[in-house]
């Protein structure tokens, strides 16, 4: 998670589902919680979580629309597809 909290969290399953269907995405205050996220991040999350599926990011031009968003501007798609980009986090998994 980029921020550390889910946008619609609720322990009550019914309230969680209601929030997913109806609630607006609210981002935590950057200064209050000492967070660093960009306007592009907010924009892509809001567009991916758009309530109307026909207006949701990717609905018109599939993955190309999503990857064309400014959030991914610095991402080299060819290198990603060729698995040339190191993952930002590689967990230490010990099999036992």
What does this structure look like?
With 96 residues, the chain is mainly alpha-helical. The protein has a domain at 13-77. Helix content is 32%, strand content 0%. The chain has 4 helices and no strands. The longest helix has 10 residues, at 13-22. The chain starts with 12 loop residues before the first helix and ends in a 15-residue tail after the last helix. The relative contact order is 0.10.
Quick summary of this structure?
The chain has helices spanning 13-22, 39-48, 62-67, 77-81. The protein is mainly α and 96 residues long. It is globular and about 40 Å long.
User: Helix amount, in percent?
Assistant: 25-40%
Structural class category: mainly alpha
Summarize the main sheet: none
Helix-strand string: HHHH
Strand tally, please? 0
């Amino acid at each position: 998670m980029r921020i550390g909290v889910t946008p619609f969290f609720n322990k009550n399953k019914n309230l969680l589902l209601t929030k997913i269907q109806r609630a607006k995405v609210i981002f935590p205050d950057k200064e209050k919680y000492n967070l660093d996220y960009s306007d592009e991040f907010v924009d892509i999350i809001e567009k991916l979580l758009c309530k109307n599926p026909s207006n949701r990011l990717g609905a018109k031009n599939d993955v190309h629309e999503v990857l064309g968003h400014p959030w991914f501007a610095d991402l080299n798609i060819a290198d990603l597809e060729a698995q040339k980009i190191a993952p930002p986090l590689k967990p230490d998994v010990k099999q036992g």
